[in-house]
Amino acid sequence: MSLYKFRTIYLKLPQSVANMGDNESCLFCKIARGDIPASIIFEDKLTMAFMDIFPISKGHCLLIPKQHYENMLYVDTKVAKHLAVRLAELTRKVHSAFEPDGIINVIANGVGAGQEVPHLHIHVIPRNEGDRFGFMFPDDYREEMAPRDELDGVAETIRAQTDLLGSKQ
Ligand SMILES: [Zn+2]
Fold first, then answer.
1. Which run of H or of E encompasses 82?
2. Distance between Cα 120 and ligand 1 center (Å)
3. d(CA 64, ligand 1 centre) in Å
């Protein structure tokens, strides 16, 4: 089950490895179907939450849509809305259960972002001081603030994009 490992969101795998999953062979589809065991926290018609088998910290779990969507670029809007609600619930439950210093929610979209299992999944990872998990930032991060006109231009570029998936629903 090495594909299930989540070590760092910066880890890159060869395209052939990351894309080997489909609905039949996809690890998370198998879990959603009950074909392989998982420690399930909750499930409903659209979603399922279960424990990560390689927990970074106590309480590290995953939330997935039961239907196969590769990542956020392809997920159905209705399912995405439901995932957001269940994510808030799951995050609060984990917080209540273990009272960590904080909790990080992580989604890797695509191999370039470190996605290892090609089925949308959201990590819920409790964080505590000294846990040795974290984001990596460039050495010159925050040395210079981006100019406002540049940020406005980037915002406009993003704003101008059509929500291709959403516009179809
Ligand atoms: Zn799947």
1. helix 77-98
2. 8
3. 9
Q: Is the per-residue pLDDT at 88 higher than 80?
A: yes
Quote the tokens at residue 155. 């915002």
pTM of this prediction? 0.83
* 121 given a catalytic annotation: yes
Distance of CA 48 to the CA centre of its chain: 13
Which fold does the domain 2-138 belong to in CATH?
HIT family, subunit A (3.30.428)
Q: Kindly give the distance from the C-alpha atom of residue 122 to the centroid of ligand 1, in angstroms, as a whole number.
A: 13
pLDDT at position 12 over 80: no
CA distance 100 to 84: 21
Instruction: Give pLDDT, residue 22.
Output: 58
Residue by residue, DSSP assigns 85-108 as: HHHHHHHHHHHHHH--SEEEEE--
Domain positions in the chain: 2-138
Return the amino acid letter for 118: P
**pLDDT for 50-69, tens place per residue?**
999 999 999 999 999 999 99
Task: Residue 80: count other Cβ atoms within 10 Å of its Cβ.
Answer: 15
Residue 116, token pair as written in the block: 């290892």
C-alpha–C-alpha distance, residues 83 and 74, integer Å: 14
